[in-house]
Design a protein that fits this description.
alpha/beta, 5 strands, globular, 4 helices, Rossmann fold, two-stranded antiparallel sheet
């Protein structure tokens, strides 16, 4: 599991996700994007890049935990999941 902030110096989370996909040993790791950027556009870009979920800042700890569990397949819930 990778919790990836979308706002990075010199690029954004999409660049990181693209690079992860080039390494077979890393390509299968689930990514949950965390961001304070405009939610609808950022969530759409994260989903298109392959993120399992999106969590908006400020982070609600319970929602984050539920989202991580869902992304790891530990719980059947749509909290934080892309449709």
């Amino acid at each position: 599991m990778i919790l990836l902030d979308f706002g990075l110096p010199g690029g954004d989370g999409v660049v990181v996700m693209e690079r992860l996909q080039t390494f077979p040993a890393l390509a299968h790791i689930p990514v949950v994007v965390v961001s304070a950027r405009e939610p609808s556009a950022t969530e759409a870009r994260a989903s298109a890049a392959g993120a399992r979920a999106y969590v908006e800042k400020p982070i609600d700890n319970e929602k984050l935990l539920a989202t991580v569990r869902t992304a790891l397949g530990e719980a059947e819930s749509d909290t934080g999941r892309f449709d």
